[in-house]
Structures are given as structure tokens and as C-alpha cells.
Amino acid sequence: NDLSSELISADGVSLGRYFLYNRSQVTYDQLSPDLVNTLLYSEDHRFYEHSGLDFQAYLRVLYGILTFNSEGGGSTITQQLAKNLYTQNPELQGKLARLGKWPSRIIQKTKEWIIAIHLERNFTKEEIIAMYLNTSDFSSNAYGIKVAAETYFNKQPDSLNLQESAVLVGMLQAPSFYNPKRNPNNALSKRNEVLF
User: Fold this and answer.
1) For a surface tag, which of 34, 63, 86, 109 has the fewest beta carbons within 10 Å of its beta carbon?
2) What digits encode the pLDDT tens for the residues 35-44?
3) Alpha carbon of 115 to those of 52, 83, 179: distances in Å?
4) Does the model's pTM come out above 0.85?
């Protein structure tokens, strides 16, 4: 189990957390609308139109590769969740790395596609959004959106405004590089990119 345990006093005051990974779960209802909308706009604006795989996005990526004009990745939120949940096994990654860059990448992507399809069949879109945000790394030992909101803004996820949501969503692509505490200029630039 990689959730944190929180020690709470008799009068309801948090005395601290104990964890291997500092992670706490939230439900979809505990996410601010600004956060959800920012995530969908930035990461997967066709999220409600596909069933885990977005073939239009893959065509866009292929066109970008052929024309040397990349306009972002093709992974859906569901694929990113699959990667967070199932393909981050260090032992498996070591075995795949021995195959070489391209064969290991093809195997990893194929697994993500298969897992994404299964996730879409077994969970609602809202559950997938919550699971994705709960399993994402936000740097500074903040795993999951609840701990990230507390760490960076001293708020709960349901209270995040548009600008704060854009900072956290921007971090999903490179958590350390866009960490607002360590790299405030990078975080600001990425936030603005997400907003505009």
C-alpha cells in the first residue's frame, strides 16, 4: 500500500503523516471544476469522445514527426493512468531496456493501449480522471493531487483556482522541471502556456 497514514489528535488536529510515498486519495467530487477543465483542455481535450485511445491524436503526432513540427504527444489521460499504474515497474523496465530503445518503447506503448482499453471498460470517465490525478507525481515528495494542492498552495483540490490548476497540470509533463518551488520561472512559463 502506497498511501500515507495520518495521525490525528482527539480534537481533530493533524499531527503528521507517515508514508513511503506521500499520497492521499480523493474522489472526482473533491476536484475543483477549474482543475478538471484545465486537465482536459491541456492533456486530452477529446477525453469524453474516445474510449481510451485517440487515433486522431496519433495521426497528429505522426504528421508532426514527418514534418519535424511536433505539437505534443498522443497519449490520452487513460493511457497516462495505465502508465502510472502498471508500467512503472523498475524490474520490467530494466528487462525492456535491454531490448533497445525502439523495441522497448513499442512494447510499453502496446501495454499502455491494452490497459487503457480495460480501464475504460471498467471505470467511468470521472473515476479515470480522479485515479490519474491520484497516481501522478508532482515532485517535492508530493504524490497525487491532494498532497500536491496542500504542498504548493496549502489548499484542498476542490478549492484550486484556474491559475493554481494550470501550475499543477503543467507539472504533469515534467514534475521537477516545472516545480514552482524549485523552478518558479519554468513553472510560471508552463502555467501561462497551459492557460493560453
Assistant:
1) 63
2) 999 999 998 9
3) 9, 9, 29
4) no
